[in-house]
Design a protein that fits this description.
There is one protein chain. The chain is 5% helix and 47% strand. With 315 residues, the protein is mainly β. The chain has a single domain, classed as Beta-galactosidase, Chain A, domain 5 (Distorted Sandwich). The strands form 4 sheets. The protein has a 9-stranded antiparallel beta sheet with strand order 9-10-11-12-22-18-17-15-16, covered by helices on one side. Strands 5, 6, 13, 14, 19, 20 and 21 form a 7-stranded antiparallel beta sheet that branches. Strands 1-2-3-4 form a 4-stranded antiparallel beta sheet, with no helix packed on it. The two termini are 32 Å apart. 49% of the residues are buried.
Length: 315
């Protein structure tokens, strides 16, 4: 492999990581997002090494879906997902509770050979501006081969609200099989109806939603070119609730989300910290069932503490 990674920083707004002439992703760490969409950093566009775009930004059906984002719909009384809040007995209600995850300071930025590294601190505040969470977040990109690269996402979230925060989902509030929340990927519209794969096998539509698994993949096809791409998300074995239940969709739109709060709330006491870590494998082509399992193994290998790729964890 002759390509090496570069980081292009638009100071105060975003960082783009490129491999040669292909921009693999742009991390918008200080977005211009309406309050009702719960402002937060996101990755979009996201591309394969061949340049195929594998993310969707602000679709009309859910305008708060933005590429890949760390999005939590129920953090105590706060909504860090976007849009209305699910209220048992009333369905979704727009409330004055759309919080913001706001960039505070960049703590690391580097790119060399096959590895790029970004880290920053964020302040999570209520819609009224009160402190809720202090976060340190790390993103790394690693070139694996000519068809595949891997994003690692790591977060350390400290409760600074002054009280216990119960982190949950619409399912923990009473809506069946709607346990979304966590690291959420929204795929291109052309991926609708694509193949969803877990270690136990493949599925169609939304029939694998709620399954517990160490990893999930989405195999989709692009408009215009007709080419195919694969996304694999891998849950770190040290994450709370591992292996998590997954919120996955294919029938109405393409999405993957390892959802640690799917059916059980996580209480986070004041001043305590919770950590999560994930690998996201971005690959050109449809590798079939066995090949997709191999991609998941690549992601798992990069998450291991003794991996050959440098690891700079959340602090």
């Amino acid at each position: 492999m002759t390509r090496s990674l570069q980081a292009i920083h638009t100071v105060g707004t975003q960082i783009t990581v490129a491999a040669g002439d292909v921009e693999l992703f742009t991390y918008v760490y200080d977005p211009d997002t309406p309050v009702l969409e719960s402002p937060k950093p996101y990755l979009h566009p996201i591309r394969t090494l061949a340049g195929a775009e594998v993310s969707l930004f602000r679709p009309h059906d859910h305008v708060w879906h933005k590429g890949i984002a760390w999005s939590l719909p129920h953090v105590g009384e706060h909504n860090f997902w976007g849009g209305p809040t699910y209220v048992h007995g009333s369905f979704y209600v727009q409330q004055d509770n759309n919080g913001s995850a706001t960039h505070r300071e960049l703590t690391a930025l580097s790119a060399h050979d096959r590895l790029a590294h970004i880290a920053h601190r964020l302040d999570w505040t209520s819609q009224a501006g009160a402190p809720v969470i202090d976060e340190h977040r790390t993103l790394s990109a690693v070139l694996v081969d000519d068809r595949c690269w891997v994003l690692t996402f790591e977060t350390a979230m400290t409760n600074v609200s002054g009280a216990v925060l119960h982190i949950g989902s619409p399912t923990t509030k009473g809506r069946e099989n709607a346990g979304y929340g966590g690291l959420f990927w929204r795929g291109p519209r052309s991926f609708t109806g694509g193949t969803v794969q877990a270690p136990s096998g493949t599925g169609t539509g939304d029939n694998l939603r709620g399954v517990r698994a160490e990893w999930f993949a989405f195999r989709g096809q692009h408009d215009v070119t007709g080419r195919r791409s694969t996304i694999v998300m891998v849950d770190d074995t040290a994450n709370p609730q591992h292996p998590p239940q997954w919120f996955v969709r294919s029938a109405e739109f393409a999405c993957l989300c390892p959802a640690p709060f799917f059916s059980e709330e996580l209480p986070l006491p004041d001043q305590e910290t919770v950590r999560f870590r994930y690998a996201v494998v971005v690959a050109d082509g449809d590798h079939g069932d066995d090949g997709t399992t191999h991609l998941a193994e690549l992601g798992r290998a990069i998450l291991r503490p003794d991996a050959a790729h440098p690891r700079k964890g959340a602090q």
